[in-house]
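Lay summary. Proteins are chains of building blocks that fold into shapes, and those shapes determine what they do. In this project we predict the shape from the chain. Here is one chain we studied, written as its sequence of building blocks.
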Amino acid sequence: MFQTLLQKEAVEPVILDMTETPLMTDYFIVVTANSQIHMKALRDSVLSVLEKRSHPIIHYDKSLGYDWLIIDAGEIVVHVFTAKGREFYDLEGLWSDAKRV
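And here is the predicted shape, written in a compact code that computers can read:
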């Protein structure tokens, strides 16, 4: 999945190991998209990978036009931001104690 995001030119991709946090997920993948169209392409490519692997998808944002989009696949949660959204919500800062993989 991470490789797919790289191939789709996700900006500044980061994987955070969330196993030592109280959250019920193992990893956050955090990326930035260049536009709403890019956000959709990143979302659709991640969903495609998950579906091909028969990996359950708990939730994903179906609408566009926002600064943050989430794909919750249980042990992995993918966060796709606009540059503005990533700076504002600052997940990497919020979870600064999580290890970067």
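What the prediction tells us: Strands lie at 11-17, 27-32, 59-60, 68-72, 76-81, 99-100.
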